[in-house]
Amino acid sequence: EAIQEYLIFVRIKPQYRTMIEARLRDIAKNTEQHNEIFDLLATEVRKFPTNRNYLGLLIEYALPASLSTQALRIVQNTPNLPVNSWTYLSRIAQYALGQSNFETATEAYQALYDHIDRPDVRARALIGLAHTHEKSQQTNSARHYYQAVIDQFPTRPEADEARFYTGLFLRDLDHKRNAAQKVFQELLNTNRKNKWRYRAFFELAES
Questions:
Q1: Which one of 53, 71, 81, 138 is most buried, by most CB atoms within 10 A?
Q2: Which helix (H) or strand (E) holds 194?
């Protein structure tokens, strides 16, 4: 009943959505009725797919309730969701990766890359895929995605991030110290003001 009241309240007073999201996160941590509550929220999303508030409430409940896979299915399979719903794909992917749910993280990042035609989003999706495969001990796949960022988006900050991690792979996994130092030096020589250039500087200084 409390969930239904929250849904009615956010419909009438959408400006209080953030407060209700916080309450749902608390409920997610202190209840065992996860599926029942999720199904109720999912029903509202399907009934009102263009209402971003309902989708936001579902995501904010689902993630701390360890239902990131189910949340991903809602975003993927519900027609007529708001155009900017891709931001929830990103949130699901990041949360799933943090929970070591590598399958869901991979699927969400891949969906971002496949369906959102924006260079910034696609570059971040590739970085997310690389991190996911690296953390799941799939090193060769991680290398592939880092290289894809460099090839497809060479001037974006994400490419510098990919170059930095490529340097770490060369040094720590391949034991190719000189090749790694070359990557770090090339990154340093770009003179771009981002943290990856500075991290390359420290790697060189400590080598």
A1: 71
A2: none
**Helix/strand/coil for 192:** coil
First-to-last C-alpha distance (Å) of the chain? 61
Instruction: Kindly tell me the burial class for residue 114, based on how many C-beta atoms sit within 10 Å of its own C-beta (0-12, 13-18, 19 or more).
Output: exposed
Instruction: Report the pLDDT averaged over residues 46-62.
Output: 89
Q: What is the share, in percent, of the chain residues with pLDDT greater than 90?
A: 68
Give the pTM: 0.87
Pick the closest to residue 43 from 59, 64, 58 (CA basis). 58
Instruction: Output the pLDDT for position 29.
Output: 76
Residue 1 has pLDDT above 70, yes or no: no
Tokens 């496949």 correspond to what residue? 114
Q: Where are the beta strands (DSSP E) in the chain?
A: none
Contact call for residues 48 and 54 (beta carbons, < 8 A): yes
Nearest to 72 by CA among 57, 53, 91: 91
pLDDT of 102-111, one tens digit each? 999 999 999 9
- Residue 121, classed as helix, strand or coil, is helix
User: What does each C-alpha distance from 119 to 81, 201, 206 come to in angstroms?
Assistant: 22, 27, 34
> What is the identity of the amino acid at 169?
F
